[in-house]
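re the bet — no i am not wrong, look at it urself. input seq straight from the record:
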Amino acid sequence: MKKKSNLKKIKFPVSKPYITNKNILDVNKVLKSGWISSDGPDVIKFENKFSKLVNRKFSVSVSSGTAALEIAVKALNLKKNDEVIIPNFTIISNALAVIKQNAKPIPIDCNLDNWNIDIEQLKKKISKKTKAIIITHIYSFPNNMDKIMNILKNKKIFIIEDAAEVIGLKYKNKICGSFGDISTFSFYANKQITTGEGGMISTNNPNFYNKCKSLRNLCFGKKDRFNHDDIGWNYRMTNIQASLGLSQINNLKSIVKKKMDIGKKYYDLLKSNPNIQILPPKNKYSKNIYWVVGIVIQNKLMTAKILAKKLSKHGIATRPFFYPMTSQKIFKQLKVFKKKRKYPNSEFISKFGLYLPSYFKMKNSDIVYIANIVNKILR
C-alpha cells in the first residue's frame, strides 16, 4: 500500500526556467551537429555576445557561477593570509573561493535598506592586508557603486564584481557586471539567462582573460599539452549549454521586464503591511530587478521558517534567505572567523527573510492570491 504524502501539492513553485520554442530549436541544431563538447563554435559565439551585453572586452564561459568565482579569485595570485573582503550575507561560494586560495575572507554586514554591504563597514574593514573585495549584488538592487569606487580609489585593491543575480540591470547608465577588474555571472536555472548550469567571467584585462581561460581548462601546457602549467580545473561549458545561453540572450529584455512587473505587483499589494519589508521598484540609482521577490518579516511576528510552513499549506513554495557566512557551521568548525564579532543585520534578515514565487508565466491573479495569503498570515 502506497503511503500518502502529508505535504500539500505545490501549486506555485518559487521559480521556473523560461525556455522558448526558439531556444529548444537552437539547442536541437547543436545536438544534430555533433558539436556537443566544449570545443564547439557556440561557446565562442556566446562569450563574444555576452561580452557585448556587459560592455567587456573578454569573457570566459565556465560550468557554474561558483566556478567563475573560484577562477576569478585564483587569477589574482593571492598569497597566504591576504585579506579579501566579502559580504556576510551572500551565497557560500564567495567565501569558499577565498578560502581555497589560502586567503582570509573578511565579512561585512549588510545594510537593512537593500540587503547589500554596509558601506560604512567597508571603510573600516580595509587594511594593509586587503588585496581584493568581492562585491555581490544581492537579490534586487546593485550596490552603491559610486561610493564603493570612491572608497577604493587610488588603493591597490582588486574588485571582483559578482553580478550573478542582476544580469541585464543597470546602475545609473552603466550595466552591472562592468565595474570590477573581473566580473562573474551565473546561468543557473533560476537566473535571467540560463544554461541549466553555467557561468561567465568577464574582464577588460587581457592578462586576467588568458589566466582565466587556462584555469578553466586544467592549465594545459602551452608547449606540451599534457605538461600542465598550473593547478586548474575542468570548469568548461559545453557547446550544448552555450547554444542555449546564446539563444537565451534574446529573451533577456522580456524576462527582466516581466520580473520587474511581478515585483512591482507584489510591492503594491504588500507595502502597506507594517509587518512586511518588501523593497520598492526603484531607488535613486537603479531599478529593482526583482531576481527574487524577497520579504523580511518585521516586529519578530514569526520566523521565516514558520511563515514558509504556513504558506506551503496553501500550495505556495518559498525559499529562505542566505545563511550568513559567520553563522555557517562548517566555518565555525574550521574557525574561519573571529567569534566575538557580531553581524546583526545579516543574522536578522536570514532569520526573518524569504522569497516568494516569481516566474515568467505567473498571472496577476496568482500574485494577488499569494499576496492576500501572506497579508492574512502576517497581520
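see?? The domain at 21-251 is CATH 3.40.640.10 (Aspartate Aminotransferase; domain 2). told u. also The CA atoms of residues 193 and 249 lie 6 Å apart. so pay up
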